[in-house]
Amino acid sequence: MRRSMVVANWKMYVSRASARVLLREIVDAVSEPPSCEVGVCAPYVYIPDCAEIVQGTCVLLGAQNLSDHKDGPYTGEISAAMLSEFGCRLVLVGHAERRYLYGENNLSVAARYLKAIEYGIAPILCVGETLEQREQGRTFQAIAEQLDTVISIAGIDSFTRAVVGYEPVWAIGSGQTASAEQAQEVHAFIRSQIASHSPRIAESLRILYGGSVKPKSAPELFAMPDIDGGLIGVAALNKQSFLEICNAVKV
Ligand code: PEP
Fold first, then answer.
1. Is position 69 annotated as part of the catalytic site?
2. Ordered alpha helix ranges (H), 44-95
3. pLDDT, tens digit, for every residue of 66-80?
4. CATH homologous superfamily for 5-247?
5. Is the CB of 94 under 6 A from ligand 1?
6. For the whole model, what pTM was predicted?
7. Which of 87, 129, 165, 191 has the fewest CB atoms nearer than 10 Å to its CB?
């Protein structure tokens, strides 16, 4: 049985003060051994504050990106080694906003994924189709390409230490959640792609759904057999809605 997971992606929506308050509220609410793993991907500059707040708790700290290089002359970049110094346990890799707004591609995403694996940080590999790809019937093809590049560079065994986030680009921040059936269909496809290399790894791989998840839509999504939790943007900015989503996971 896979353990469910819910991860907040705060993006650039929080101030330092509000991030501290929100994280303390989350930590207090999940101080009991939670029914699911709970993670928060914070903006880089708040990671030291957040590391202090999550210390000794079961909330996992994550970042929203990392460099595709180990170290060197890459002004403005943050490496996996730097994140691991602050106790980051998770990192988003290939979020749609990075791919489509900042030109990250399958190869550079795979390099970032590999750096996370090498430094013992669990990458949350984000994959998903654009509206155009969906309308043209190319959803599976787009996702297969995103997965295949990572598998060929990092190897299938790396997926024992990774999480996959299915985030249809058209659903992120749009208020338009994929239906539970639409999401399940793609989650099952992702699992089958991994299973074609290793049925054992596919069975234990956690695949999270992201894209306008709200407390109202979470229970139906999380009830699906291949949906193991969620990646939450806007609804994670409010303590109550984020915790309601955490409570909606399968136990
Ligand atoms: C995200 O950015 O990863 C995300 C899922 O955002 P939202 O929940 O706001 O669609």
1. no
2. 47-54, 80-85
3. 999 999 999 999 999
4. Aldolase class I (3.20.20.70)
5. no
6. 0.97
7. 87
